[in-house]
Amino acid sequence: MLKYHDQHVIHIGELLFGRIRKPITTLLGSCVAITLWHPRQLIGGMCHFALPCRPDFLAQEREDARYATDCIKIFMRHAHDWKVELTEFEVRLFGGGDMFTHMLPEENIDTETVQTRPVGEANVAHAFGMLMELGISVLEADVGEKGYRKLWFDPRTGYTRVTFVPVHRVSQLDPRYMRAQA
Questions:
Q1: Which of 94, 96, 152, 159 is nearest to 122 (CA)?
Q2: Number of domains the chain contains
Q3: Which of 3, 8, 73, 179 is the most buried (most CB within 10 A)?
């Protein structure tokens, strides 16, 4: 088992790319991670984004890896710096779990003011759409469902490992949740 200092841990809004010498790991709920690996150049990366695109009032800000649209732009710029195209990478997509719909009231939702589409589903749909639009094939996807994922990616080999934990199992194991329900 790897020790904490033997790997990079990325959080929401972080992105790593290049000839990275340590595995990258993250924890995903409704957020999505995209991994890239170039089998000839032996370069790769991972991003961890929270939302499909930035709000209009932030349109003039610099690129921000909290948003899928910006992650793809950043990856494209890095690939260009390495003189490769994103279409040459092995691309995998993870996350987009449905973490919050069990918290919404079943009736009387004002669908004009409340987003009823789960954010994880929106993240996944947006990421797939952008990648398809750019002609980038997704080699593997482990997305959706009610739960979170632990993702481990080795950018030296392109190997990924994902562990899915259902939401109901999390609530059964977390003593803080049990106290809150009492």
A1: 96
A2: 1
A3: 8
Token pair of 52 as six digits: 């499909």
Q: Please answer whether residues 125 and 141 qualify as being in contact, where contact means their C-beta atoms are separated by less than 8 angstroms.
A: no
For the record, the structure tokens of 60 come out as: 């003039």
Q: For residue 156, what are its two tokens? A: 């030296």
Quickly count: other Cβ atoms within 10 Å of residue 134's Cβ.
Answer: 13
DSSP 169: H
Domain limits at 75? 4-181
- Could you identify the residue written with the tokens 């924890």? 27
- For residue 141, the one-letter residue type is A
For the question of whether the overall pTM of this predicted structure is more than 0.70, the answer is yes
pLDDT, one tens digit per residue, over 67-120 is: 999 999 999 999 999 999 999 999 999 998 887 655 555 555 555 544 566 788
What the block records as the tokens of 3 is 């020790």
| 94 phi, psi to nearest 5 deg | -140, 150
Residues composing the chain: 182
Residue 65 DSSP SS3? coil
Under a CB-based contact definition with an 8 Å cutoff, are residues 8 and 23 in contact? yes
Question: How do strand 90-95 and strand 32-38 relate by DSSP bridges?
Answer: antiparallel
How do residues 58-68 score in pLDDT, each as one tens digit?
A: 667 788 899 99
Q: Name, in order, each residue with C-beta under 8 angstroms of 94's C-beta and a sequence gap of 6 or more.
A: 28, 32, 33, 34, 35, 141, 142, 143, 149, 151, 160, 162
